Amino acid sequence: MKLVRYGAKGAEKPGLLDDEGQVRDLSAHVSDIAGDCLTRRGLAALRALDPATLPLVAGSPQRDLRLGACVGQVGKFLAVGLNYADHAAESGMDVPAEPILFTKWTSCIAGPDDDLPLPPDSTATDWEVELGIVIGDGGSHIAPERAADHIAGYCVINDISERDWQLRRGGTWDKGKGHDGFGPIGPWLVTADDIPDRRALRLWLEVDGHRFQDGTTATMVFGPEEIVSYVSRFTTLHPGDVIATGTPPGVGMGQKPPVYLRRGQVMRLGIDGLGQQQQKVV
Fold it and tell me: How do 242-244 and 77-81 pair as beta strands?
């Protein structure tokens, strides 16, 4: 099942993608793709609906129908750093013994194809295609063998990062991770039952048609279930919380010399089975 949020920015409505790739409206059944809608009980209720009986939304998604972030009302937007062995190597850093956690402020969340406003004093804004986890049933101190039961689904995330702010301005990484527009999520949330092997997904990202990232989740250090269990030791997870799980090699910082985004450029990125995003830098 693929769940979406469609419509004007700030006024998105809940929907699902039918077998023909068209959006069906869910407004009569849920107020948003958020909260309890994402629990096992909530998803079971949506799965029981016949898409053919739901109102068809005019327009083609990601063409003449805007999609917002596929999750609404996100309480926590967390992320894991250096979680691909080959990305850690290109960054000149050791593979971590435990997951490195940081936050992306929820005000950075954007639709999958929204323009990216380059911060006016940015000199090193970078890209990172990532597998996103969306929490379903919440919990704390979740056992690793039960963690899959707490995952509603997966999505594409571009963990956009200002490297100077992240690494050279003192303090935590968060400064470089949370600027407005730095968290495109979507195009859709694919429920976990439709992604049988989370450790064999291809991730890629292009800038102006040049492919910089082309990796696979097989090189992840910590898998989705390990991450959910680990994070829940430090904070209670709630339905609709989002976790970005790290990026494969090919980020701008890792190029020799480094390459960073400029106004007018276009990023395209995607993950097998989870859809694609496109952002223009403005």
Answer: parallel
Say how far apart CA 31 and CA 45 lie, in whole Å.
14
SS3 content of the chain, % helix, strand, coil (to 5): 20, 30, 50
How many C-beta atoms surround the C-beta of residue 11 within 10 A?
9
Local structure of 193: helix, strand or coil: helix
Query: How far, in Å, CA of 107 to CA of 185, rounded?
Result: 12
- Determine the pLDDT at residue 187: 98
C-beta of residue 239 within 8 angstroms of C-beta of residue 149:
no
Residues of the chain with pLDDT under 50: none
Q: What is the DSSP string of 138-184?
A: -BSS--GGGGGGGEEEEEEEE--EEHHHHHHSSS-GGGGT-STT-EE
User: pTM of the predicted model, to two decimals?
Assistant: 0.97
Taking Cα atoms as reference points, which of 68, 24, 57 lies closest to residue 186?
68
pLDDT of residue 95: 84
One-letter amino acid at 114 equals D
Residues β-bridged to residue 203: 215, 271
Q: What pLDDT, on the 0 to 100 scale, is given for residue 120?
A: 92
